[in-house]
Amino acid sequence: MGVNPYDNDTRGKGEQVREMFDNIAPTYDFMNRAMTMGIDKRWRRRLIKELTKRLDAQKPCKILDVATGTGDLAILIAKKIPHAQVTGIDLSEKMVDIGREKVTVEKLYDRITLGIGDCLALPFADNSFDAITVAFGVRNFERLNDGYAEMLRVLKPEGTMAVLELTIPTNILALPLYKVYTGQIIPRAGKMVSHDNAAYSYLPQSIEAMPQGPEMDNIIRDIGFANVSHIPLTFGSCTIYLGSKPKQRKNLQED
Hints:
There is one protein chain. By secondary structure, the chain is of the alpha/beta class. It is built from eight helices and seven strands, in the order ααβαβαββαβαααββ. The chain has helices at residues 13-36, 39-52, 72-80, 93-105, 144-154, 174-194, 199-209, 213-223; strands spanning 61-66, 84-90, 112-116, 129-135, 155-166, 226-233, 238-244. Strands 3-2-1-4-5-7-6 form a seven-stranded mixed beta sheet, with helices on both faces. α6 packs antiparallel against α7.
């Protein structure tokens, strides 16, 4: 998507993203709450609400949370969907370490497993999960299409993918405030709190560079997902993208 965390760095985006999140891990949760004024919690709850509409409430399920970070979404899924077993993966070991501590505090270690993993090479067999979630992670994928293709591969037929991502507001009144807030206030606050000069300047740049709304729908659909749709939240400053894996057709010899 053409935007990397660190200027004049010749490493791939994945390596840069790993270093950035390792650097900001200790302050990540605080900055998330502060930047969104706590609305990020509401966004996650809405994602789970939309996800549960597509799951069979009577059946146990396996859910993969990609780019799980410090585990906020994985923990909320386990609390809201009692029959779910949740696996979370992330590039950043320091983020995952914090997530594991939170899982232990919540006493959910029997239902949540967090580990290190790359979204472009998921360490799981085909058709492994009933649902896949990503919260605030797809804009950090080094190759967006390949990340979606991997998620489609490990998703079971008729399974659901639910993506939550920051987007540029579509409301004309909210847009000027968004530009000031993300372009000036957040980068300055991020430098003071996280001590990583690039991380919170990269944030608005990565949002702007990412496909939005119908354009993202088309990418998801072209990868092979069906029933693709998106739901704007909070004047369009965040968006839920939904898609499902088509039911596999029988081999011609069986027809």
